[in-house]
Amino acid sequence: MTQMLSAATFETFAALLKKRSGLVIGPDKIYLLETRLAPILKQEKLRDLIALADRLRSSNAEPLIRQVVEAMTTNESFFFRDDKPFQHFRSQALPRLIAARPPGALFRVWSAASSSGQEAYSIAMVVSEFRPSLGDRRVEIIGTDLAREQVARAREGIYTQFEVQRGLPIQMLMRHFRKEESNWRISEAIRGMVQYREWNLLSDLRPLGQFDVVFCRNVLIYFDQATKTKVLEAVARQMPADGLLYLGGAETVLGITSCFAPLPSERGVYGLAGAATAAKSVGDTRTARSLA
Length: 292
Ligand SMILES: C[S@@+](CC[C@H](N)C(=O)[O-])C[C@H]1O[C@@H](n2cnc3c(N)ncnc32)[C@H](O)[C@@H]1O
Known about the structure:
Elements: H1 7-21, H2 30-43, H3 49-57, H4 62-71, H5 84-100, E1 106-111, H6 118-129, H7 131-134, E2 138-145, H8 148-156, E3 158-159, H9 161-164, H10 170-176, E4 177-180, E5 183-186, H11 188-191, E6 194-198, E7 213-216, H12 225-237, E8 244-247, E9 260-262, E10 269-272, H13 274-291
Parallel strand pairs: 1-2, 1-7, 2-6, 7-8
Antiparallel strand pairs: 3-5, 4-5, 8-10, 9-10
Helix pairs in contact: 1-3, 5-6
This protein binds S-adenosylmethionine.
């Protein structure tokens, strides 16, 4: 049942979520607060959201704040989601990178809101098809997410029957997973290709280093315009001039930043544009060194 929340109580949650994760919620999302935060109310033996809001304003609330922020994230993900980006990655991005980088080079691919790991493991499965043509080039795949629980799930690499039935071709299931009771465990070979880390896209991205390819999909949709701009521009700074960005089906850079431009006739794929590319001609020597 929807509670009568005072404007002040609603604002406590809305402001906290926006500041900590970028998530923007309007008053029409009170039901979402209720359903997602119900387990926390139970755990903390709190009567309602008003009591939880009071608790969040008290000292030493940090662990609880973290729990609330995580509980409000939407972690829906599946293998080879939307397929198109992975087709492009397989048929265009990887062959182009292999041709452009010398033997011995390191490519870095980032799944920037990796949730329970399906996106980063899908990338790893595609990369594994390229072993013969990679020669001694190495590929590092990093998955990051704000939600600690999701990062732990991703690292574990165990998926339900339902999860492996969503988007994963049967040949890939047979090749890269093994059945473990009612679940499926990803092979050590694929699991070992991905490193997962907790990381907030609103925080400093520089310690993560440079990425040749970034999948930043189905996360910007939760942010307001200013946050989308901030995040995309920070992501652009982590990419070399020939880097590629994949966004989700409902996301775009248009009207948000001029750092990226859509690739002609490719939906959801972006390259660095204009000023961002020019700035990189200086930065590229540093990039090349850090990739060596
Ligand atoms: C809907 S999932 C998308 C997963 C995957 N990229 C895909 O497209 O299937 C969105 C993920 O973004 C994460 N997220 C939300 N805000 C974030 C932030 N500020 N920093 C990092 N991750 C965030 C959530 O925890 C969630 O796992």
